[in-house]
């Protein structure tokens, strides 16, 4: 009977071919032979669309045994079928075969499906690749998914982001990361959301350097949405994102003409500095504090204020005093930042000495100026009143001695 049905697939009558294909689909699960499978593959090229659809449906039922080059190539060709039902069904069958046997042929076939005209086929391919990519990954597949991020169909871009997020850290290249970074500016909110998730997963899987480099480049992008997206990812990464390049680019981003861009950069910096106060962060902020740009300088000082509860190194205290002691408004800002953020118990002798060093290093002209400078420091930090009187006296004497030595 099977031989008769196979023969009928080559007949001239379209109805006969249709019924023969349908009948083969019903019995093929019980009697699978290579002759039957090859006949069904040949039927994918039949002139009748119903025959081609029924052939796809029949091959789906034997998907476990159908992972051969002949079947896969036939289904890949069917992806370009002018009949939407045929091309969609062919992609669906390829997806099922891929879940059971993720061969290179199947993966490449699905990757090629991302380039067909039918958006429904591209969607099915992305979803299927998202299920397969954790098992087997090829560079062709990765770049196909990166290209799919720019698909005109938002669902395709969304599913491509999800699939890329499942790729292991070892396979995550600069090209992949930059592709996902660019997706941060996609018009579709779900594509952007999935891009954030994908970048976060890349960093979790060990590709943190590549991710940070991609995000640093994104902070220089003229597209405000990419900048904002990069800020949000850096905010999520937190501690791992602490490099001088990141600090500097986020400080630069605070100069953006668009408020939402400045706000996103400031928020990301706030999360990073609150999460970890390292020498890298301090150095980045100290360098920024010397910048001639007022926005950069003020941003650095505000962030130093947030870091105050970790205890300032001497160079940071010096920078703060040099900048803020120039005006009464500056001292008010410094006092506010310190009083809100600094834990008094952790305000050590080291910090106190740094404040005094900052005063004596100014090459003061007379003792009264030194007293005034110390008064400014005490005004800036009201809780200094708890410091023992003899410490203040010794400090004044040290300033006086420094002044006297400069007279001769």
Explain this structure.
- The chain is mainly α.
- Among the domains are: 1-121, Leucine-rich Repeat Variant (Alpha Horseshoe); 363-407.
- The protein contains 23 helices and no strands.
- The chain has helices at residues 2-8, 14-27, 34-43, 49-61, 69-78, 84-100, 104-113, 119-132, 139-148, 154-164, 174-182, 189-204, 208-218, 224-237, 244-253, 259-275, 279-289, 294-306, 314-324, 328-341, 349-360, 367-380, 389-407.
- Helix 8 packs parallel to helix 10.
- The N and C termini lie far apart (119 Å).
Write a brief structural summary.
The chain is an all-alpha fold and 408 residues long.
Q: Roughly how much helix do the residues carry, as a percent range?
A: over 70%
| CATH fold assignment of the domain at 1-121 | Leucine-rich Repeat Variant
Give me the CATH architecture of the domain at 1-121, please.
Alpha Horseshoe
How many E strands? 0
CATH class of the domain at 1-121: Mainly Alpha
Beta-strand content bin: under 5%
């Amino acid at each position: 009977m099977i031989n008769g049905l196979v023969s009928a697939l080559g007949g001239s009558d379209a109805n006969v071919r249709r019924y023969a294909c349908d009948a083969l689909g019903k019995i093929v699960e019980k009697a699978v032979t290579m002759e039957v499978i090859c006949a069904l593959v040949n039927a994918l090229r039949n002139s009748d669309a119903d025959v081609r659809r029924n052939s796809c449906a029949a091959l789906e039922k034997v998907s476990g045994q159908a992972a051969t080059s002949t079947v896969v190539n036939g289904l890949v060709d069917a992806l370009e079928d002018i009949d939407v039902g045929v091309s969609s069904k062919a992609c669906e069958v390829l997806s099922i075969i891929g879940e059971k046997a993720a061969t290179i042929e199947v993966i490449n076939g699905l990757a090629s499906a991302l380039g067909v005209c039918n958006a429904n086929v591209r969607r099915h391919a992305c979803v299927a690749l998202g299920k397969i990519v954790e098992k087997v990954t090829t560079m062709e597949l990765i770049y196909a998914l990166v290209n799919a991020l720019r698909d005109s169909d938002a669902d395709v871009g969304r599913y491509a982001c999800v699939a890329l997020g499942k790729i292991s850290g070892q396979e995550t290249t600069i090209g992949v990361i930059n592709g996902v970074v660019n997706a941060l500016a996609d018009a579709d909110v779900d594509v952007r959301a999935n891009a954030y998730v994908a970048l976060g997963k890349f960093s979790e899987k060990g590709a943190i350097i590549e991710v940070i480099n991609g995000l640093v480049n994104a902070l220089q992008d003229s597209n405000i949405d990419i900048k904002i997206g990069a800020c949000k990812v850096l905010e999520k990464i937190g501690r791992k994102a602490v490099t001088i390049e990141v600090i500097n680019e986020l400080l630069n981003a605070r100069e953006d003409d668009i408020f939402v861009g400045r706000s996103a950069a400031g928020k990301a910096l706030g999360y990073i500095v609150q999460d970890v106060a390292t020498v890298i962060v301090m150095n980045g902020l100290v360098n920024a504090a010397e910048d001639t740009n007022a926005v950069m300088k003020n941003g650095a000082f505000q962030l130093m204020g947030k870091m105050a509860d970790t205890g300032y190194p001497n160079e940071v205290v010096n920078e703060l005093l040099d900048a803020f002691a120039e005006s009464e408004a500056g001292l008010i800002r410094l006092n506010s930042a310190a009083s809100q953020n600094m834990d008094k118990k952790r305000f050590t002798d080291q910090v106190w000495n740094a404040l005094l060093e900052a005063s004596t290093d100014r090459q003061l002209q007379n003792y009264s100026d030194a007293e005034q400078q110390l008064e400014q420091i005490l005004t800036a930090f009201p809780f200094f009143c708890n410091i023992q009187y003899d410490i203040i006296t010794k400090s004044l004497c040290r300033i006086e001695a420094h002044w006297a030595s400069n007279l001769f």
